[in-house]
TrEMBL record:
This is Xanthine phosphoribosyltransferase. It is found in: Cytoplasm. Gene3D superfamilies: 3.40.50.2020. Residues 50-179 form the Phosphoribosyltransferase domain. It catalyses: XMP + diphosphate = xanthine + 5-phospho-alpha-D-ribose 1-diphosphate. One of its GO terms (cellular component) is cytoplasm.
């Protein structure tokens, strides 16, 4: 998606260690109009796929998932929580994922009330790097008996193997911007 690539070039900040900060428009401050256009693009890319619900992980994927849901017939959005709380039911789907940005493992939890056997699910997130978050969401879908129809990503770090690994496993991964190279010294970002 050319608009997203240009926005990354203009407003993104490249940091050492493979970090791309896009917090001015994607995952701290949200450009909702851009999110809506991204949702429309994903609806086009996944046209013909059955999507009963959208699943994401807290917190950066929630805004994207909600905007995308509007373009899939206002399907429900479910987000996996990263911590147990007293508000959660006892009947839970759980797994553990490693976070690239937080550099630690954490639990991800979804109530079985919101992810069911026979559901057709679109996974949505802001970044795909090593693929651990998506693998965790796939595991939750497997435990529920739901089918993953596709994986919608805003920004994929193509120089890491998460996207490639998921595609080799047969998942339909559609990333709106695939970063092939970043240079913290010059601040440049290159795309596929």
């Amino acid at each position: 998606m050319r608009e997203l690539e240009e926005r990354i070039r203009r407003d993104g900040v490249v940091r050492d260690g493979g970090v791309l900060k896009v917090d001015s428009f994607l995952n701290h401050q949200c450009d909702v109009a851009l999110f809506d256009r991204m949702g429309a693009e994903w609806a086009t890319l996944f046209k013909g796929k059955r999507v009963d619900r959208i699943l994401t992980i807290e917190s950066s994927g929630i805004g994207l998932a909600c905007c995308a849901a509007r373009h899939f017939g206002d399907v429900p959005v479910v987000f996996a929580k990263k911590a147990q709380s007293i508000n959660l039911d006892d009947d839970l789907l759980t797994t553990t994922v490693y976070s690239f940005t937080k550099r630690r493992e954490f639990p991800v939890i979804v109530s079985r009330r919101f992810l069911h056997q026979g559901d057709h699910v679109l996974l949505v997130d802001d970044f795909l790097a090593n693929g651990r978050a998506m693998e965790g969401l796939i595991e939750l879908c497997d435990k529920a008996g739901a089918t993953v129809e596709g994986i919608a990503i805003a920004i994929e770090k193509g120089f890491q193997d998460g996207g490639g690994r998921l595609r080799r496993r047969g998942y339909d991964v559609r990333s709106l911007a695939i970063v092939t190279r970043m240079d913290a010294g010059t601040g440049t970002v290159e795309f596929a």
